[in-house]
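User: Fold both of these, please.

Assistant: Here is the first one.
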Amino acid sequence: MERYPDIEIYLARVEPEALNAWLGEALDAAPLAPAGKHRWRTRGHHGDAEIPVLLVDKAADGFASLWLDSAESPWPTDTDLARAAAKRLGCEVRCSLGGWQPGDDPDRFLQVLPDGAEATIDWPDSGQ
């Protein structure tokens, strides 16, 4: 199975307590700590690997970006993390359709809803 070198998803709504609880359970991560304007960081662990975590609030059209800077997380791909987050956090989650390659449409995303419904959507970067 392919593992991405890092994974990123976009959360429609961030409930800090729920997010911290989930990251604590899944990655044994301490609660997210402020790391600059609209940024929070923590470090989790999976096996022997350390997993740096970055949350950027209002990263894109009101969505927060959750970035795990490691290939060693419990989720091999963006899609795996998006599905887990939508189910656990009860919010809409978006992610890229796969490992991005030059020539791919950068505005095509996978939308995952809390009930498990998935759709491919156009989500142009508003440049905010």
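And the second sequence with its predicted structure:
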Amino acid sequence: MTATDRSIELISTAAQAAADKLAHDIIAYDVSDVLSITDAFLLASAPNDRQVKSIVDEIEERLSKELGVKPVRREGDREARWILLDYVDIVVHVQHSEERVFYALERLWKDCPELELPADAQATRGKAEEHAKLAAAEEEAEPDGEWR
């Protein structure tokens, strides 16, 4: 079994929405062979809780406006560290960067085929690592902007 055209359309739209809100490391897996409950997973992350929420809101709005679908379930809103949107055909996971590293969902699904994503979404690969290095460099700087 493979992901349906509808699932691929949903994933593509959600991935573009996430990319437009500057999500990091957007990736999608076809999990239809290993899970009977859904066809595909979309993973994305952001460096702070507010951005996680913003990405999720954009995905939800875009899928509703453009494809006429609403999630059957939305979980994790209160902490905004890991928000899950369940659209039955696809499940979207938007995680705070720290949760993304800790839970490493990619390890669980690495044997599943990756789905092709829009160019903007593909361009987000490696952004979390880039952001982490930048943040570490900023912490190294003294308050007056001089390096230690």
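The longest strand covers residues 24-30.
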